[in-house]
Amino acid sequence: MQQQTSNGGISSGLQQNGSTADSGGPHANGNMIPESDSDINGVNGETNQNLGPPKVMDKTNQDIVRLIGQHLKTVGLKYVSLNLEMKFLLLEQKYLEYLEEGLVLEALHVLRNELTPLGHNTGRVHQLSAFMMCSGRDELQTRAGWDGKGAVSRAALMDRLQKYLPPSIMLPPRRLHSLLCQAVEMQNQQCTYHVTHTQTSLENVSLLVDHSCSKEQFPCHTIQVLNNHCDEVWYCKFSPDGRKLATGSKDMTVIIWDVDPETLRVTHRKTLEGHTYGVALIAWSPDSSLLIACGPEDCPELWLWSIDPPDYELRATVTQSTDDSLTACAWYPDSRKFVAGGLRGQFYQFDIEGNVSESWEGVRVKCLWCKNDGKTVLAADSHHRIRGYNFDELCDFTILQEDHPLMSFSVNKADRLALLNVANQGVHLWDLQDRCLVRRFQGVTQGHFTIHSCFGGVNQDFIASGSEDTKVYVWHIKRELPIAILTGHSRTVNCVSWNPVYHQMMASVSDDCTVRIWGPRSSSPEKVDSDKT
Question: For the domain 215-523, what is the CATH code?
């Protein structure tokens, strides 16, 4: 284990017959008013053709018209607008069906005498008039984006009309099916141990009982105990593609393990040697081809490894000064650059060759994370904060502040939630967008030793953390109490990693010098294997 020393009103233009004016019409902004009342009172839906010159209103009259429009809308004018939209959709269908049947005169009558007088959606009316030039049925359907006369297009029309009608008149389509799907989805969200890729739907569950996954499918059973390290194991991390596991130890080695997706077991692939300090943190590049190993607090260098089989070679040893402390690092999403820092005030941005491209002075970094936007770097510092840094624009800002030292943190794949291991407090969940504490998880023993927790599961609905009481704790993200407490280690559990692809698999490492692989009971042998290479 490592002990460390101690962030208004809506304007509505009016048109003939009280309908809502088209947004592109000359009266859309309420700046003009007809000369007399007779100009807005059409007979039998026909507009008066003898309009006089419009008046230009002053600001006071414009405000009055806007207030009247707002009042009319609140007392029911909006329903007139909805009726107008429904009438337009019906007449559009009628017009297109006439055209498809070759009844051009009838279609022209609908266009001139029924659609145009509505004064609604003028742009679409112009499009409809152009369809009269179509050479045949196929061209008409293609240009109009229409399925042709028949049940399909009329069903689509009903779906469009449905949103304008209250449920008391017309139920939404497949309403019972929608309600049942919502019920199944709710059961899925409330399932304590839902960790498989199988999607819960009406097709694969019974409606006679509530959906509930068995704990036997959950990764809470020891599959393997790996004894290859000869000293305390400080860190473990699955690669983003889920096919490899890397473990770092006080014995100054990193071991790469291959993951078998079928059995959820691992086999030794390569031991990376040559580090001059113990390995306290490992960072995989997002494309799973590179790996960075960091040392403890007094380590001034990083080791950048290429992990492309069959070659596992040390690509660069990154260091700036023997007085540096480079104990934290994180990759940008493009796998072409990374950031690193430490508690002595160093904070660098490196390219893939290990060259410094930018630096930030005086930031005492404990843990780092690069967001998916490719710009923002989150850093936990010695002032109990997490702050955001942008190396391109050289700006920084505080996101959250805790009352106790932050030992480590991780962020979910949506960049919304952060999981913090806080000294003497345990595991806290923060919302980075709303900048508020969401939940304090109970059970874990957290002092001043560095313990790394993680998100896991298909939708990252689970959280796992090591503990100083030798146990691994697992919580559902919506519950403060653990849903599983895993035993087997004999000393402090320093780190837990959940496989990001094969969600029924976890790994944990401990000061007892072992690595434990956790999986469902079906993958657990009667006698747990203990591998030594």
Answer: 2.130.10.10
